[in-house]
Structure of Toluene-4-sulfonate monooxygenase system iron-sulfur subunit TsaM1:
Amino acid sequence: MNQISPAMADTASATRQPDLRRVNANPDFWYPVAWSSDVPKGKTVGVSYAGMPIALVRPEEGGVFALYDRCPHRQVPLSKGLVKGQTVRCCYHGWAFGRSGRCIDVPYLGKGKLPNGVRTFPVREAGGLIFIFPGDPEKADTVPFPKLAQTDNPAYKTKHFSPRVNCHYTFMHENLMDMNHQFLHRRQMGQIKARFLGQDRGEDFIEARYSFMRSAGQQPLAERLIFGKHKDLQGKEQPIEEVVTIRTEYPYQTLRIVDKDGDLIMDLWVAYVPQDKDQRETLSFGLLSVLRPQTPLLIDVIWPALGWFTNRIFLEDKEIVEMEQAAWDEVGHDRNVEIFPVVRALRELLIRCGCPQDVKQQTAATQPEAETTA
């Protein structure tokens, strides 16, 4: 009887469904591309979404607007231009473009017909972030805007972070959703074990709940200051002190921690924004809200310790997901053997809601509305 080689099995598996690492992020959602503080009044800043260059422009008056970051004349980035009034002038020949994307002035053209303009992107600003809608602009008003942790709640203090990771965004979703990887963090967290408490799923989301049991090692200082000290049970099984709920509600991900009384003590919101055309580089925008202790100013005292602790955890996750990406690059396709039902369901969700790379997406270079004007 003929046996199927591992390579043949991989090929057969690949024909059954798209390779997850070849599924692009769906552009028909609101994605953060910069912090509000990065775009001061009278300035323009260049950002990217999946290889599309985008110029964020903040006039002295009014809110931010976003243009395709190439002047149609010589393809020079508009983000290098000069903001004047409600327009941005290209740094090369001074062509001026307004909020609508139309070219409204060419200094040396006189009264001739103005050239075509550039594509614009719907923009919203919330939670200290600037969001664009990179997909079909007609959908922007109907697609729900995400809830951004507890940024508007004064009972919480919120930390901002935006690390760049050299991997496909789907590795990030898997990493956070699967809490069984705590062995990786043993140097930072001590020896703890995740206990899976259950899951929920829907057409556009999947949610998993965990608690953690410490089997050895000391509770980290930052964890103790935020959640309170967990008693040393001398080898006995630790009762459920907190419940951690991780949810991917496409395309965003959240992690919420409630204590034994059901009070929310930590709320994390994160979006993974692809930067390059092949979507192998991801910029993560995160908001981490922590409940303020009853003792005044204590949160400010422990904030540096929390920042150090969370950064150490993240660096370990960053290294591991970049290893996963390197393995995919070497083989050329996804060979993961996934056994955890939650992650299997997550992968199906990301494929279902994403865009396989062979699907044509709207070009960013043109804007039909920006026709030649007299």
